[in-house]
Amino acid sequence: MSMLRHGLQQTLCLRQLAKGQLLKPQWQRTSSHVDIKNISTSHQPEDDASPPENPFPGVNNARPLPVSPSYFSREPRFNDAYIKLSTLLQRYQHIPTAPPELVPRQVLAMVKRLHSIFPKMMPGEVKEALQEFKRDIDPYKNVAKVAPLDRFGRALGVGRRKTSTARAWVVEGTGEVLVNGKPLNEMFGRIHDRESAIWALRSTARTDKYNVWALVEGGGVTGQAEALTLAVAKGIMVHEPALRPILRKAGCVTRDPRTVERKKHGHVKARKMPAWVKR
């Protein structure tokens, strides 16, 4: 029995020795792999998680400040210009002003007082500030272009009123008027609207000299009739430019800019307020 026990111990020792020799190369390969990973050179920079340096010593919560004090207002550019002009006006309002014929008219009302300073005594900073508001426009060259007659002898006029738009082709004829392919009595039921549509012809006594073919769209009947007044007047002025003063005096040249005022929140209509109840 002792011999058998001694033989088994030798066998176990040899097995453990062989196992250690087999694991030794594997352990060396693992360590060499780790060494290669440690000494590998990569072109990707390592992430630096350190916080950036604070350029303001002693200040922990630094934030950028807006350039203009009007940054948080509704219209910062307008407020900056207003403050700048007000400061200049208070500083140089004692300088005498030039006569009206020496002061250009193409300036804003906001800078009119500064612009009226005598040119020889105007400071440089005032000239620099006013240069932003000037426009390089020649009043004698700013003339509205008149559309010529087409090859059929027609003149096109466009007019607008409220949300209505009218286009009228005016040609020499016998006084026929068609609006959207219909005569006046079918297109406009009210007499006032019919007179408004041909008021440019009636005011110049040309009701039997020109034919009108018009297209109107948008808005109501009254808006379409008044838009047609402006369109026909523009067509007549192409044929006879000398009638402009008469048409202007009759109110046919200037466009009416009035529109429907919008409804406000908390109001019944545009301006009507709800009835006040005490309890």
Please describe what this structure looks like.
This protein is an alpha+beta fold. Helices cover 39% and strands 10% of the residues. Among the domains are: 76-131, no CATH class; 155-249, Ribosomal Protein S5, domain 2 (2-Layer Sandwich), CATH 3.30.230.10. Strands 1-2-4-3 form a 4-stranded mixed β-sheet. Residues 41-62 are annotated as: Disordered. InterPro entries: Ribosomal_Su5_D2-typ_SF (IPR020568), Ribosomal_uS9 (IPR000754), Ribosomal_uS9_bac/plastid (IPR023035), Ribosomal_uS9_CS (IPR020574), Ribsml_uS5_D2-typ_fold_subgr (IPR014721). Keywords: Ribonucleoprotein, Ribosomal protein.
- Quickly give the structural class: alpha+beta
How many individual helices? 9
Q: Under the CATH scheme, which architecture of the domain at 155-249 would be assigned?
A: 2-Layer Sandwich
- Series of H and E elements: HHHHEEEHHHEHH
- Write down the overall geometry: elongated
CATH topology of the domain at 155-249: Ribosomal Protein S5, domain 2
Q: What is the CATH level 1 assignment of the domain at 155-249?
A: Alpha Beta
Relative helix content: 25-40%
Mean pLDDT comes to 81
Q: How many β-strands, per DSSP?
A: 4
List the main descriptive attributes of the protein structure presented here.
279 residues, alpha+beta, Ribosomal Protein S5, domain 2, four-stranded mixed sheet, 9 helices, 39% helix
Could you give a short description of this structure?
The chain is an alpha+beta fold and 279 residues long. It has helices at residues 2-39, 76-92, 112-115, 124-131, 184-187, 191-197, 199-203, 221-239, 244-249; strands at 155-161, 164-172, 177-179, 210-217.
